[in-house]
Input
Amino acid sequence: MAGFRSLARQVRDPDCDLALRRYSLRKCLEKFAPYGHRATWDHLCSRAGFGPEDRSPDPARLVAALEELEEARDVWLAYETDFTERRRREKHDGLRRPGSVDDWHRLTWGGFGVAWCDDPRVHPRAPLAEVLRRLIAALEREPGSSCPVCDGERLVWKYGLDHEPSSGPVCTDCGILVPRPVLSPPALRHAGRDRQLTPA
Output
């Protein structure tokens, strides 16, 4: 199975058939898709200016979408490297029990679904790399009361998400499943209370 970099080379290769180049970009999302496969694809298409069902997009637009994905992947890989180093130091110092950020991180290793969007048409508008930088910054500071990506405060607890965990606080402004470690206990309780008050 081809890795991310070899798929990226195919997307850029002008000698490849356009259908293969588009297919290779889609396959990249099996390796790295911060919002989940469908929502990340919708995001990349809208930002690069071609339709999700467009079978013959402008090759320059495919490459633009790939470049946005690559930049975000670089941001995430750097975070994972830092995370691994931190855990190694903590274990060396005798801290064996991982914290809540570590538990969340274990579920998102590799970058799939780190800012999960259950509705593929509702996702942040900012570039992927910027979204990940905001998310990482939130993971590295004290928990807050709002969405780390868009600063929205309308968080609603949802069940039956097509993700692990299958329930949690979802930002109704940008659509992401907000990682629990970035929210304070009152914010988590408030999201749960809003769920009770929101009609089904």
About this structure: Residues 143 and 176 are 17 Å apart (CA to CA). DSSP finds seven helices and two strands in the chain.
